[in-house]
Structure formats: C-alpha cells, structure tokens
C-alpha cells in the first residue's frame, strides 16, 4: 500500500521520533545523543538520558555549555566563510538542528560552499541525510567514520567527490577531542588528519575544561567512562598543545567559546565557569 512502512525510505524513517536504524544498540549511551538531550532534542533514548542526567547532576549548567558550543560553531563557520573558505570538513557532526548547522552558516555567506559531515553513529547519519539539505549551488555529503582512523575519512569516496584537497579546507572538531584521551594520541590523530591539507587551511576546535571547577569535571568524566564513553577534560595549556606543528593559533587565541568573537560584544555573556569550554581557530602555515 502506498505510504506504508514498506515504502518509506531510510531518510523518511529518520524523521519518525524514536526510530533507530536496524542493528543499532540504543541500550548504551552515545555522546552525540547525550549532547542532543542537553540541547533539548528528541533523538535520544533512555540510556542516553540516564547517563546525561547523571552528568547534569554533577554539573547542571552543562546545557549552557552545549548551547554556547553550537553558537560558537555558527560564528566560527560564518567567520571562515567571510575569509573566503568554501570547503568544510565537520567531524563529530552530532544530531542536526534545523537551520543551525555548518552548511547553513557557510551557505548563508557563500551559497556554493561544500560541506562533508562525519560521524560514527548511524542514527546521527540517518538524521543528517534526512535533514541536512544545502543550497543547490553548494554540496553536502555524509561519511560514517571514526576520528580515530583519519584515513577512513580522507580516503572516503564521498570526501574525494565533494572537497578539493588542493585548495584550503576548514576542518572542524567541535566538542570532539575531549572524547579522545591522551592514551589515544589526539595530537597524532590531528596530524594525520591535516597533513594532506594545503597551506591556508584552517582548524577549528572546542574542548571542555576543568580549569574553573576541577572537582565537578572529574565527576563528569568519570560518569561518561562508566557509561562506556572515554573522556578527558583539559586545561587551557593542554588544549593548545593539541594543535599540530605547522599550525598557528589565530587571534583571539585560546578563548572561552562564549567569548570568542561574540556577535554582540556589549551583550552580557555567561560566566566562564558555566561554559567551561575553550575554543580556538588555527591556520596552516
């Protein structure tokens, strides 16, 4: 029968609240779905909500940090598009938010911008394919890959057909590297991920920190680990040290994300302790 469940595409299925791709274990929390819960989204499941509520019990303002991180992403992308960057590689995409994604911000400035989204959660990717439709003069693509294996991203046909790595690319890892503890060698991962990029490429990063409340963040990281999600909060200095050799951190340097080139410098900004996340923009020399 037309319109039945048998006729629906995966993209249509992804728009149904509570839908999951076949074979996905939603009994275990996932960082992207927990982040969606912090932002008030609906693409999360009981395991995600239970883990997120434990985190919020330790640090109730985490929702503020999540909202500020999304705002930082949009400002960062608009800034880069204003500099003439029209190619973006967004790793750790997370659940899409209508009108507030990388391609929305980039294509508002430069409609021909091209964006490749990367995530390792099939639910995220299903929603991305359903919801992330860009300007017809630009392009969007989606890759199921893990940041721990940069070559699986760089060698993927979708990236090769969408981005031209002979021209500058902006690589974005927003709220990703705190899920890559030191034992997973995050600087080595970033080096492998960016070695092929030409001079003039950009690297945008954000990362949680315990600089303002180390006790709470120790509890938060422990809660994530108990849920099977590795994590590590880093200091300002530790975060800056993740930037590979051959890259220059640009003004204003390592900054609290809410204070990084705010849209309205005269507006009242949240207390840095409530945000507890740094951001930076670096350029390849």
Could you give a short description of this structure?
The chain has helices at 10-14, 31-38, 46-58, 62-82, 102-109, 122-131, 150-154, 157-162, 186-194, 214-226, 236-240, 272-275, and strands at 87-91, 114-119, 139-144, 170-174, 202-208, 247-249, 255-256, 277-284. The chain is an alpha/beta fold and 285 residues long.
Can you walk through the features of this model?
It is globular, with a radius of gyration of 18 Å. Helix 6 links the parallel strand 2 and strand 3. It has one domain (65-212, 231-284): Rossmann fold (3-Layer(aba) Sandwich), CATH 3.40.50.150. It contains 12 helices and 8 strands. 38% of the residues lie in helices and 15% in strands. Helix 3 packs antiparallel against helix 10 (214-226). It has helices at residues 10-14, 31-38, 46-58, 62-82, 102-109, 122-131, 150-154, 157-162, 186-194, 214-226, 236-240, 272-275; strands at residues 87-91, 114-119, 139-144, 170-174, 202-208, 247-249, 255-256, 277-284. The protein is of the alpha/beta class and 285 residues long. Strands 1, 2, 3, 4, 5, 6, 7 and 8 form an 8-stranded mixed β-sheet that branches.
């Amino acid at each position: 029968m037309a319109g039945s469940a048998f006729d629906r595409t995966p993209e249509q299925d992804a728009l149904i609240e509570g839908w999951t791709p076949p074979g996905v274990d939603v009994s275990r929390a996932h960082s992207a779905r927990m982040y969606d819960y912090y932002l008030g989204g609906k693409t999360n499941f009981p395991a995600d909500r239970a883990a997120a509520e434990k985190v919020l019990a330790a640090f109730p303002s985490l929702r503020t940090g999540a909202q500020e991180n999304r705002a930082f992403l949009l400002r960062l992308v608009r800034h880069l598009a204003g500099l003439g960057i029209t190619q973006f590689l967004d790793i750790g995409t997370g659940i899409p938010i209508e009108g507030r994604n990388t391609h929305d911000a980039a294509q508002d400035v430069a409609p021909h911008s091209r964006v490749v989204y990367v995530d390792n959660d099939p639910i995220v990717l299903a929603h991305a394919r359903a919801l992330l439709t860009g300007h017809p003069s630009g392009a969007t693509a989606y890759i199921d890959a893990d940041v721990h294996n940069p070559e699986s991203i760089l060698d993927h046909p979708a990236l090769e057909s969408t981005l031209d790595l002979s021209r500058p690319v902006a690589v974005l890892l927003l709220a990703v590297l705190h899920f890559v503890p030191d034992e997973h060698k995050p600087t080595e991962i970033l080096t492998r991920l960016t070695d092929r990029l030409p001079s003039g490429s950009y690297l945008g990063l954000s990362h949680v920190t315990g600089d303002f409340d180390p006790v709470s963040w120790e509890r938060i990281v422990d809660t994530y680990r108990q849920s099977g999600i590795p994590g590590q909060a880093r200091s300002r200095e530790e975060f800056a040290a993740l930037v590979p050799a051959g890259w220059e951190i640009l003004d204003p340097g390592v900054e609290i994300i809410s204070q990084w080139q705010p849209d309205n410098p005269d507006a009242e900004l949240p207390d840095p302790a409530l945000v507890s996340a740094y951001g930076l923009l670096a350029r390849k020399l």
